[in-house]
Each structure stands twice: as C-alpha cells, then as structure tokens.
Amino acid sequence: MSTVHQQDHRDRPARLTVGVVGAGRVGPALAASLQLAGHRPVAVSGVSDASRRRAEALLPGVPLVPPAEVLQRADLVLLTVPDDVLPALVTGLAETGAVRPGQLLVHTSGRYGAKVLDPALRAGALPLALHPAMTFTGTAVDVQRLAGCSFGVTAPEELRLAAQALVIEMGGEPEWISEENRPLYHAALALGANHLVTLVAQAMELLRTAGVEAPDRMLGPLLGAALDNALRSGDAALTGPVARGDAGTVAAHLVELRKHAPAAVAGYVAMARATADRALAHGLLKPELAEDLLGALADGTAAGAPGPDASPGTQSTESTESDDNDDNDGTDGTDGTDGPSGTEGNDR
User: Residues 309-327: what's their mean pLDDT?
Assistant: First the structure.
C-alpha cells in the first residue's frame, strides 16, 4: 500500500493546481485525495444542487466555475463525466480553445483509454486515462477507500511515469490496461460490482418477504465469506443446489419466485445456468445430475416466467444515476449533463 500521503509534500516538487469538470461522486474525491498529496484544487464545475453540496463538502472554498474556466485555472484537469458524454465534451473543449498546451487532462472513464482525448492532444494537452476500480458514495469516506484501490491506467508511453505518480499519490495501485482492452476491462468490473448490488438487493427483498427482520445482518457474513472464497479459489468456491445438482430444490425456488417475485426469475435462471456451466467444467456438478437440473431451469422459464429477453418490470437497484461517474464501475453513474458548459460527475 502506498505511503505517499504520509510524506511531507513540501519536500516534493511539481505541485499542481487541480480542476474538476463534473462534480459527481468521483471528481471531488480524487481532487481531495490529490490535495492530501500537496496539490492544490483551484476550480470545480457543477450544476445540480447535489454536485454543489458535494464540492463544498469535499473541496471547501474551491470556487464553482464553468468548465472552460476550470481549464484556464488548472494545470491538471479531472474530467469526471459520464462515459457517453466524454467524447463530445473533449471535442467541445478543444474546439473552443479551452485546452492549454502542456496541460494534464485526465479522464476517469472505465470504458475509454487515452484515445478519446485525441482532440485535446492535438491542442497540446497531455492525455491520461485513470479509472479507479471502486464504487463511490460522494462523501469523505471515498478518500480513505482510495488507499490500495487499483486504477485502470492507459497512457502514452512518455506519460506512464506521470500517470503512475498520480495514482500512487492518491494512495492507489496502477494496473496498466491497453487501449483495445478498455471495454472488456470495464465490462468485467460492471459484471462483478454493479450486478452484485442488484443481486444483493433482490436477495434482501426476498428475505423480507420470507419474514426475515434483518436481511442485511443475515446476508453480511454469508456474502462476506462467499466473496472471500471466490477471490481465493474461483470456481472451486461454488456451493449450493446448482453446483450440487439438486434439481428439485431449484424447481422449488422457481415456484416461489414466480409467486412472490416474478421479475427475479429471469435473473435466477440466467445465473443458475451460468453457474451450472462453470460447475460442470470444474468437475463439481456431476454430468448425470446436470440434465435434470437444466430441465428444471427450462421448465422454470417456460412456466410463465419472463425469459432472458424479457423487458421491463425487472427490479433494479444499481442506478447508473447521474450523480457519480460508473460504475465511472467498480464500477459508474453521473450527475447529469448540460453539454460542455455544464457536464457533471462520474462514479465509476
């Protein structure tokens, strides 16, 4: 784990003025972390009341100004905006002359590498893609959580040392991701983090329906152990009725889900099939039991449950809300957008 935050920043050269375009959950937290390393936040853009409150809480005294003015004031600019907004924002800033030669321009999108910053590169900026693999709350706790957090880093060869230094100063660990692998990298994080939130929330709702008064307390130790086992052992950690081939139990689950939570059936069936495939490949599920199991899953979908392509009505708890940058992923959400002059925040 990095100990940079414990060092006296006065002993280190090249302190930078820092600006944030998009005061969602990610930008102010990263700027606050850089401030601990001795850099100086000087400007932030934010439009919504939530973004303004967030900026004031994490970056007290730092003025809220339009994006173009953020770029005028800062040596290092964090573009913490939604993935889909980023290309147009970069193009707009470059075309209006807001980008200054020699300026470090950092985006925190998981999807994109450094190439999305090419318009700014042509204007003389130094492009970096630094994506924290962390989910953000928009509070001061995020700054502490950055300690030991992996960052997906993509940068030109000549800027790799600069990218590494910034990540380490924020307490993170750089993980180099090639330009062409960024979408796959981001999909992996979204699969693990965003979908986990939905699964946990659905499980809590079902436990409440079953009469459990404190589903969070019941699930906490179970999920903690499952996550630890999965990270340590991968597919060998698979347990439960699917991995055992208990087709009757799976069929009973589907009956109850159709009765109490029909919108959850499609997700259950899809994950059970994926689990069965992995359990078979790993030798945990006996082939002679797999046929009945897959039959139960097929019956569950056919018996009035919505299929994998079913539309709407599904329960969702992981919003790609515009109040943080998603998943920026662990995974990303955002704080809304007004175009280049008012684009806001990203989670991850």
Answer: 37
